[in-house]
Every structure is written in C-alpha cells, then in structure tokens.
Design goal:
By secondary structure, the protein is α/β, with parallel strands linked by helices. It has helices at residues 41-49, 71-77, 93-98, 113-125, 141-154, 171-186, 198-204, 222-226, 230-235, and strands spanning 2-12, 15-26, 30-35, 56-61, 64-65, 78-81, 159-163, 190-195, 207-212, 215-220, 239-244, 247-252. α4 crosses α5 and α5 runs parallel beside α6 (171-186). The chain is globular.
Length: 255
C-alpha cells in the first residue's frame, strides 16, 4: 500500500497546526514520528484517518483521495491504535478484536464464523490467542496494547497509526510491542508510530520524521539523523549518540 500526503495544511480557529506537509510512505516501512507536545502529531494522524477536514492539500491511499472514500472504505485502509483504552464493559479479548471487523460486514449485521476466524487469526499473528476469553480490563498495559493491535489487524487495514504505544509500559512490554510492530512491517504493513522516545525511534525505525514549527523539519533514516546536529537543535540540548553492537544510545552532554 502507498500513502501520499501532498501540501497538507490544517488550522483550528485562529490556530494553525500543520503547514504544507508532504509525505510519501509505503508498506514495509516503520516510521517514527517525533515532535514536542502540541507539534501536530495527533492532528496529522486524524487527517490521515479522515477525521479532520484539511484546510488545503490532500491525503490519498493507493492513489485514491480520502475525501472520495466512505467511512467504511477508509477503515479498510487505515487503522488507529491509541495509547491506552479502558473499557466500561467487561468485553472479552475476542469480542474486542471482533470490533475491528466492523468495516467488512454490512450495517447492523453481526459477526459470523468468518469474522470470528479473522479475529482469531489476528490474535495468533501476535501470539496472544491464549488470551481470547479473558476480560480486557484484567490485562496488563502491554497485553491491552497487543489486543488493540490485533483489533486493527482484524479490520485488514494495511496502514497502522500508533499513538505513543509504549508511553505507559514497562521496559519489557515496550520492547515486546515494538518488536511486534517491527514484525508486522516485515510482512508488508506500513506503521507510523508517534513517540517521544528517541532511542526507540533510532533502533526500530526504517525512517524518522521530525515535526516542528508546524512543518516536517527532518525526513530520513536513523543513520542520517545521528550523523547530523539536528537532534541537538531539535531538543535544544547537547547530546551524544553512541552506537554499540548495532544499537543506538543517547547521552546528554551534561551527564
């Protein structure tokens, strides 16, 4: 699949957020989106999902403009995985994942055997099929994140947007979730991951994008980023990037 964003701009009343954003991405990429709070990362996600009407420019998937797609058609192309969710009702894991099949069944229809199998396959892909009967609210943060990812896979969308998926997780679960996302991109999915963790971006991404001052200020590989002074200028602090056994580590010069 191919995602194309061309000269996209968006403003809330009297508050411009994105200006002239252009980006091309395809299946197989793990793209980390870095930006300070309020830089427009969430707004960019909502624009890709078609939840916000852009001021100018366009977003297209596989050559078709989002504005020409129905809500169901968009859901078949893109899926959003939030940072965290807490359900009011005690849904089972399988029921939660089945909700991802909504775009592929007719209005008011109930999921059938085909959809149940699709949900089970999604759970199996992530190695969590053994959780299918558990209450989602009884799971750990990392387990819930994987369930939300399985729900997205059940919808068969190939463009996955992750909103800070590891922000509230312990280190072990962070690595588990990121490894799963990396595995999905290897099988053809496009993953765009919003994050504040620079080390994770450097170590898991095929590409990194920096959002600053309403625009993309960097769009390149981790190697290109560390071989420049862009990170220091972006975070306005002296930094050293160290590479040991193919892994990047960041050390502030003040330490």
């Amino acid at each position: 699949m191919i995602l194309e964003i061309s000269d996209l701009s968006f403003s809330y009343p009297k508050h411009p957020v994105l200006q002239n954003i252009s980006l091309s991405a395809k299946g197989g990429e793990f793209i980390s989106l870095l930006g300070n709070n309020g830089s427009g990362k969430t707004t960019l996600f909502k624009s890709i999902l078609g939840l916000l009407k852009v001021k100018s420019g366009s977003v297209s998937i596989d050559g078709e403009n989002l504005n020409n797609m129905s809500i169901k058609e968009r859901a078949k192309k893109t899926a959003y995985i939030p940072q965290e969710t807490k359900q009011v009702f005690a849904y089972s894991v399988l029921s939660q994942v089945l909700m991802g099949c909504t775009a592929n069944i007719s209005t008011l229809a109930s999921p059938g055997e085909k959809e149940v199998q699709t949900a089970l396959d999604a759970l199996k892909t992530l190695g969590i099929e053994h959780m299918k009967d558990r209450n989602i609210n009884a799971l750990s943060g990392g387990e819930r994140q994987l369930v939300l990812c399985a729900r997205a896979l059940a919808g068969k969308a190939k463009c996955l947007l992750f909103d800070e998926p590891t922000a509230s997780l312990d280190y072990g679960n962070q690595i588990s979730v990121l490894s799963i996302i990396h595995k999905l991109t290897k099988s053809g999915y496009l993953a765009i991951v919003s994050t504040h963790n620079v080390e994770q971006a450097l170590n898991f991404s095929t590409r990194i994008i920096l959002l600053n001052n309403k625009q993309i200020t960097f769009n390149g590989t981790p190697e290109q980023l560390v071989n420049s002074d862009i990170l220091e200028r972006f975070y306005m602090t002296p930094l050293s990037v160290i590479k040991i056994d193919e892994r990047y580590y960041i050390k502030p010069e003040s330490i």
